[in-house]
Amino acid sequence: MRGKIWIQIAIACGIAALICCASGTAVDQPIVFATFAEQPHQLDNIRIMSESIRRFGGEHRNAPIWLYVPQALKDRKSGALNRLSELNVEIKTSTAPEDALWFFFARKIFASGQAEADAEGKAAILAWLDDDTIVLQEPREFILPESKSLGYRPVMHKNIGLLYTEPVDAFWARAYEKMSVPESSLFPMVTPADGDTIRPYFNAGCMVVRPERHILRRWGEYFTALYQDSLLAEFCRQDVAKRIFIHQAALTGAILNHVEQNDMLEFSNRINYPIFFKEMFGAKRDFRNLQDVVTFRYETYFRNPAPDWYEQLQGPADKIDWLKQHLNKK
Length: 330
Prior knowledge:
Blueprint: H1 2-22, E1 29-36, H2 40-56, E2 65-69, H3 71-75, H4 79-86, E3 89-93, H5 106-119, E4 123-129, E5 133-135, E6 150-154, H6 170-179, E7 189-190, E8 197-198, E9 202-209, H7 215-227, H8 230-238, H9 240-258, E10 264-266, E11 273-274, H10 277-281, E12 295-297, H11 309-312, H12 317-327
Parallel strand pairs: 1-2, 1-4, 2-3, 6-10, 11-12
Antiparallel strand pairs: 4-9, 5-12, 6-9, 7-8
Helix pairs in contact: 2-4, 5-7, 6-9, 7-9, 8-9
């Protein structure tokens, strides 16, 4: 009798496993963190990011961390790469088309698509983060509800974007045309730094996706369509800001055309919090209070920080002390 019971249990477990696989929910990991480095100094940033995940990531502190680099950077076999390996960061390589490299962040775009492809079938969620990200609390928001395929934050400020009420300029008109973005897909979003209401314009440094939706791979496809367009290339030659941020225009099209708004989750302002953004780029408010912050970005601030930067921050003393110890080493 006991043998029959164990056989029945085994059969039931096997059926459950088959159902799980058939429904596409059988994955190895609930979440994978992934990022990209093109320059050696970014490896130091990623070490701090990785240490912050291992220290403050809560249930996800031991989640896989994947770093994508060009082959040339991996071939340097630097001590920085060895230190990342000690944090169980897996080093992977990615490539980008040669004709794309005149445009800023081109390598990062194609690395994100590679990460998404690598994660499909292995992770339920892929968190794609820029190298200047630090985690201060368990990022529960990253575990998207079943009804959502994309978690995002708006761009910090308007930049080359458009206010929601202003007419479309020639650059965006051409970009919308090349990407076949319909007017009906546009919706307002508010910039964290200035509180401006703008047309859709997504932050490319913090995106959480379901890999099977191919959002990041489409980003590369849309970027290719834009940078190979002669008119848009001319706009970029005339205006370096457009050359820098055309990658975000491509991301906007990839998302709007393939993800319904009700399938997106705009993360709270506790995610991708831009510390010292006002000091670096100007803003209508300060970003110095880390009390409830889950992840933050620091851009280039710590290349030449104020001597007393840690005294300007508000929040848990132990976390500010941790940041002082780690970021003062940069």
